[in-house]
Design brief:
The complex is a heterodimer of chains A (365) and B (301). Chain A folds into two domains: 230 residues, P-loop containing nucleotide triphosphate hydrolases (Rossmann fold); 67 residues, Alpha-Beta Plaits, CATH 3.30.70.980. In chain A, 30% of the residues lie in helices and 22% in strands. Chain A contains twelve helices and 15 strands. Chain A has a six-stranded mixed sheet with strand order 7-8-9-4-10-11, sandwiched between helices. In chain A, strands 1, 2, 3, 5 and 6 form a five-stranded antiparallel sheet that branches. In chain A, strand 13 and strand 14 form a beta hairpin. The longest helix of chain B has 35 residues. The two termini of chain B are 26 Å apart. The chains are: A alpha/beta (365), B mainly alpha (301).
């Protein structure tokens, strides 16, 4: 996937992704304290709600899907993805991610609530919006007895708004982008899982998109393929495309996201700019001292306001909360506790998730 | 489709979208033609369908050969319906082949073509990708119906054309001796056989609509195919029960054999149009059912 981003237009050079300036970032305290007491959405919202639909790439309001079986797959979802963001849509298998994506694309009708894509209501505005949206939904799917290239030609022919004169070039560029140029004339049936996934990505990039919805794009890919997908997402994002990427494997996409939303049992339990979510709230400090001084160190940490302080041999461990790490070292030195080491670890998203839901991340419902 | 106007909302700098908005998409010229051609390529390019067409084309060939090989034996001229007349006139091979295919092989062909249309895409998972391209659901349904109809038309034509060629080669083409006695000259005879082919083709449209409807109900194409064939079989069975005589005229299959009207001195157009009308009614009812189902159903395949 080393080709030039020929498939992307509207790449305003020098325009930084909006992820760097999150609305609501001015008041981080409000969002974070709420998150500790409740497991409902703690989305960090713009101060003023935008007009209906608004300027967000994706917005949902009270989006709910109850299947005929009575199972509630998505439960009053309020999702907001700013333009330019790389939004990591995370959650265990069965947490409602795919159903949400299907509702966003107009494949599944919500039981209640509304959804907007690129500011326009779905599914009513599908004809005008979806040509600007590329999607990979629940794995790739193509006609098995057609070649990869013929499959892309088929999708191209179905698209009433695509320019047929540029079709061949755009198909070549898309295949090149995902490294399938050589395998383009092979039958889809003969593709490996990784190649199928690549063809799905190529289909999503057949024409310039403002928004990409990628459901589990790394499924079936080897580590090298996963790296390539991450690279591709970065490239698309740098060119101005908003990307929503879902995964049940946090670690795989965590690093490319500017924003994160975590689903659990049909609800959005956490949402916001990634930098804020893994901030101080669950940062742990581990102090190494001597075994005899450990109890004293623990008292100092507790006195500073750290919570969940525990002693293990010569190590004392605690949740920093809002306490700046430098005050820890200063206080220990001030209390004459020998400070042999201080380790401050920001939690991974996975740890945040486990903390919020009390579940392992890969546990299905 | 409503395009958001660039509204000036409030004082202060408007947030600049990171990706410059793309041009509002507008339909290209010839879009419908490309969609239809793509669908036809898909239907006729598929190996299974090609084999099916070839198999149907074998029917008149086999009948013709069988009659040709046995024409000097004692069984000459025996057999149901039109078979016995084939050795006198090659044109009758077309009629005989269609007659033999009507009870089962043509319904099977209709079942495969229409039952697979949407259920096949759903089963392969490609339906969701077609819909997010996007293509309007009603439009996709119409194109799928067109593809199925085209395939069924090709099947009927394949039987007719091969029948005509084999019949002409083995038995020659002569004036047709009519059911009601007398005969018509050769030009008129060919026209009448063409009328039969057309009528048989039109007789399949109701079943195509039924199959299309079944195809919107399931993600299992074989289920929709089987249900379509079963519908034709059940209709034919009901048609034989005297107790149900009052509903016979409305049955899907009741008028299929009325193509024989073309073999009378003066074909009764009322009989023919009744058959066409019943097919039109089935198309209307099941087309509407397919439409209402497909345009509202959740696509979760």
């Amino acid at each position: 996937m080393t080709g030039l981003p020929t498939g992307v237009r509207g790449s305003a050079p020098g325009t930084p992704p909006e992820g760097s300036s999150v609305p609501g970032a001015a008041a981080p305290g409000t969002g974070t304290s709420a998150a500790r007491t409740t497991t409902t959405a703690t989305a960090i919202r713009p101060a003023a709600e935008p007009a209906v639909g608004g300027t967000s790439a994706i917005r949902t309001s009270g989006l709910t899907k109850r299947f005929r079986s009575g199972q509630v797959a998505v439960d009053h979802l309020d999702l907001e993805v700013p333009r330019g963001a790389v939004f990591g849509f995370l959650g265990p298998n069965g947490s409602g991610k795919t159903t949400t994506i299907r509702m966003l694309l107009g494949l599944v009708r919500p039981t209640s609530g509304q959804a907007w894509l690129l500011g326009e209501p779905m599914p009513d505005a599908a004809a005008g919006v979806l040509p600007r949206v590329g999607a990979l939904v629940e794995g790739p799917a193509f006609q098995p007895y057609l070649s990869g290239r013929a499959n892309l030609h088929r999708l191209e022919a179905v698209d009433a708004t695509a320019d047929p004169r540029t079709a061949a070039d755009r198909i070549d560029a898309a295949l090149d982008r995902v490294g399938l140029t050589a395998a383009g004339s092979k039958k889809y049936r003969q593709y490996s899982l990784g190649m199928k996934q690549r063809l799905g990505l190529a289909a999503a990039m057949l024409r310039p998109r403002e928004l990409l919805l990628l459901d589990e794009p790394t499924n079936g890919l080897d580590p090298q393929g996963t790296r390539e997908v991450r690279h591709l997402i970065r490239e698309l994002s740098a060119a101005g495309t908003t990307v929503l990427v879902s995964s049940h494997l946090l670690a795989e996409i965590e690093q490319v996201c500017t924003h994160v939303g975590i689903m659990s049992r049909g609800r959005l339990v956490l949402s916001g700019a990634r930098s804020e979510l893994t901030d101080s709230r669950t940062t742990r400090a581990t102090v190494t001292t001597t075994a005899t001084d450990a109890p004293a160190a623990a008292r100092v940490l507790t006195g500073l306001g750290l919570s969940d302080v525990s002693v293990t041999g010569d190590r004392v461990d605690g949740l920093l909360g809002e306490v700046p790490p430098d005050r820890v070292s200063a206080a220990l030195v001030g209390a004459d506790v020998p400070l042999l080491g201080l380790d401050v670890r920001r939690p991974s998203l996975e740890q945040v998730f486990v903390e919020l839901t009390g579940e392992g991340f890969d546990v299905a419902r | 489709m409503s395009h958001a106007e660039p509204v000036v909302v409030a004082p202060g700098p408007a947030p600049a979208p990171a990706g410059a908005p793309l041009d509002p998409p507008s339909p290209q010229r010839g879009a419908t033609g490309r969609l239809v051609r793509s669908e036809l390529r898909l239907v006729f390019g598929r190996r299974r369908n090609q084999v099916l067409l070839a198999g149907l084309a074998m029917v008149p060939l086999l009948i013709g050969l069988m009659i040709w090989l046995t024409q000097d034996t004692s069984t000459r001229g025996e057999g149901p319906g039109f078979i016995g007349r084939v050795s006198q006139n090659g044109l009758f091979l077309v009629v005989a082949a269609l007659f033999l295919c009507l009870p089962f092989l043509l319904p099977l062909t209709v079942g495969i073509a229409s039952g697979d249309s949407l259920a096949g895409e759903a089963n392969a998972g490609t339906l969701r990708y077609l819909l997010v391209v996007p293509v309007a659901r009603a439009r996709l349904l119409a194109v799928k119906a067109l593809g199925a109809l085209a395939f069924v038309a090709a099947a009927v034509l394949a039987i007719a054309v091969v029948g005509l060629i084999v019949g002409a080669a083995l038995f020659g083409v002569h004036d047709i001796a009519l059911i009601s006695g007398g005969s018509v000259p050769i030009g008129n005879s060919v026209l009448r056989v063409a009328g039969i082919v057309l009528y048989v083709g039109v007789s399949m449209t109701g079943l195509v609509a039924v199959g299309l409807f079944f195809s919107t109900l399931t993600e299992v194409p074989i289920g929709a195919m089987a249900a379509t064939v079963v519908t034709a079989v059940v209709s034919a069975v009901l048609d034989t029960l005297p107790a149900l005589a009052s509903i016979h005229p409305y049955l899907l299959t009741h008028h299929w054999l009325d193509f024989a009207e073309f073999l009378r001195i003066a074909p009764d157009s009322h009989v023919l149009w009744t058959g066409v009308g019943v097919q039109a009614a089935w198309v209307a009812v099941f087309g509407a059912l397919a439409w209402s189902r497909f345009t509202t159903a959740d696509v979760s395949s």
